[in-house]
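Thread: "does anyone have the structure for this chain?"

Original post by V.I.:
We have the sequence but no experimental structure in hand. Need at least a predicted one for the grant figures.
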Amino acid sequence: MLRVDQTLLQQVIVSRPSDSYKGDYGRLLLMGGTYPYGGAIIMSALAAVETGAGLVTVATDRENIPALHSQLPEAMAFAVTDQELLAEQIAKAGVILLGPGLMDNELGAHLVELVFDKVQPHQVLILDGGAISIYTRLALPLPQAQLVFTPHQKEWEAMSGLAIGDQGEEATRLALSQLPPASILVQKGPHTRIWTSGQVVGYQLDVGGPYQATGGMGDTLAGMIAGFAGQFPQVGLYERVAVATYLHSAIAEDLSKEAYVVLPTSISKEIPKWMKKWSDNLNENVENETFS
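Reply from O.Q.:
Generated one for you, tokens below.
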């Protein structure tokens, strides 16, 4: 398995041109946080904004919007049941994150089916949490889009048919071949792996640990992946996903030096500092840095 190294980090996280503006850094639509999981989409949105995503819009329960805006006024938000606005925002988005805190019920199924019907090949569609459960349960045909899946072990079991104990490299590689070409899989677990169909060798993280085993960790990761997906066009989507996933666990590992458990929101607060460090050191020798 490959490792995310300093060279890859600095190929992805580059300094921003002085003449750029928010429209250069992604238009994201995040969908989820239906009752009683409102906090999930808030954590995803926080992570996406902290990565530097240009425009972040959240479709969630109307009752969840005041809580979102009290923590994150930088994000726009609307009621996920507003069908006209939802269709408009799906069409405008460059990156759609579907699933953090999405209840597996009639509304959730409607939203997954709607996005699958409306998404276009040029858009990035990230399926997380509830969206993976709904897609798997209904056996829906996958749409033509740039697909990213972020399942934990039980969700990957449902997707692939592989029991948790059987989710090794070779078995996962074979299961991945059943997904559309160029699909990206973030196989979350004690040793998270990042794969893309059609490529024999994937990335495996060498950072992270049990201090991340707390609610909201995956929602934060999904938001970080969405934020990276909307930026850094100088590299491929696969590389952006790999670096976002690494950054998530690298920050957690650093915070764990002084914390028994690392909260997802604590990771988000640190994202801009770490991205600044890597972009500033693009042309410097950083072998002795603690951020490696």
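V.I.: this helps a lot. The mean pLDDT is 94.
O.Q.: and The two ends are 18 Å apart (CA to CA).
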